Amino acid sequence: MTAVEVIRQIEDLGGSLAIDGDRIRVLLTPEAETWVPELQRTRDEVFRVLQDRGRPEVHMPAGVRLLRWDLKPAPIEMSRLSVVLDPQKFVETTLRQLEAAIQGKPWAAGNWSVRDLCERLEQVGIQVHVQEMEK
What we know:
- By secondary structure, this protein is α+β, with helices and mostly antiparallel strands.
- It folds into two domains: 3-53, no CATH class; 64-130, no CATH class.
- It contains five helices and six strands, in the order αββααβββααβ.
- The protein has a two-stranded antiparallel sheet with strand order 1-2. Strands 3-6 form a two-stranded antiparallel sheet.
- α4 runs antiparallel to α5.
- The chain is elongated and about 55 Å long.
């Protein structure tokens, strides 16, 4: 049985699987507990599938390379009085702001600097590297 099938069976029975650092966080209903041996057998493959499933396609601005994608679950406290309730939407918006900042359009970047935007992304688990732009 493949990892995708194991995940589907567990989730169809009301269980849930999620990545938590280098571990798989598992919440099982009594019905889904019968899948534990198969889950243990396919653990590494299940981990990779869950990792890929949590990595949706996002537009990376020109000159920006994704170094790490480890999106944290909501809510995320960003800084004093800042909390992210929709991490995916936050990442998409911040990447658009980063693109604008790189293009020299501070008004479209929310007046955030490239460095500030990279730091904001890191706070939600996304690490990027902005390449030197040729002048």
